[in-house]
Amino acid sequence: MNLLQLFIGIAGLSIGTFIYLTDRSPESTYLTWHILQGLSLHTLFPDLFGILDRSMASFLHSFSFTMISAGIVAASRRGCLLVALFWGGVNSLFEVGQYFDAAVIKWIPDGFEGLFLLETLDDYFRAGTFDWYDLSAGIAGAGVGYWILVMTRKLGGDSDAKNSRRKKQVENKKSVES
Fold first, then answer.
1. Contact 133/67 with Cβ under 8 angstroms?
2. Residue 128 to residue 15: CA distance in whole angstroms
3. Contacting residues for 146 by C-beta, under 8 A, at least 6 apart
4. What are the pLDDT digits (tens) for 96-134?
5. CA distance linking residue 168 with residue 174, whole number of Å
6. How far apart are CA 178 and CA 169, in angstroms?
7. How far apart are the C-alpha atoms of 137 and 97, rounded to whole Å?
8. Which helix (H) or strand (E) holds 155?
């Protein structure tokens, strides 16, 4: 587990949550309306992030989940790339799904009703609007996440990096003894 990467991802999610609390009306998102029971700072700080708010949530979603996922599994460089591609792909599919909302809604099982988070999946596609900026921001978030993962792999407790150093030390010790 890489605690630095995990912390960076949680910090990104915290900023994203703050965006939803300040720049979005409470009834417009599942997070503020259902999970936080309508808690909102929207009336106190309306449009705090200004134009950045429009796509920052998409960026932070794919960025943060890329960081958290790879941070938990302490992924190799290749693993970091796979995690970033996965979250960039998930974000892209959800965004493109808003463009083809009627077709996507038909594929959502009725059994999702009443299940935490999944219960409003059809509302997400029905009420959401496809936006090229959101699509780009989600892909960029995963890309920046990958770059930061690669830069922080050897920091924060990455077990692959430690194991690699140990292996080299053992090999060097054996070659010196021979």
1. no
2. 21
3. 66, 80, 81, 83, 84
4. 999 998 899 998 888 788 887 787 788 788 888 899 999
5. 10
6. 14
7. 16
8. none
Residue 50 or 111, more confident: 111
The pTM (predicted TM-score) of the whole model is 0.77
Which tops the pLDDT comparison, 156 or 81?
Answer: 81
* Exposure letters 143-176 (e unless 16+ CB within 10 A, then b): bbbbebbeebbeebebebbeeeeeeeeeeeeeee
The angle at the Cα of 167, spanning 166 to 170, to the nearest 5 degrees, equals 85
Amino acid at 3: L
How far is Cα 66 from Cα 141, in angstroms, rounded to an integer?
Answer: 8
Burial of 115 (0-12, 13-18, 19+ CB in 10 A): exposed
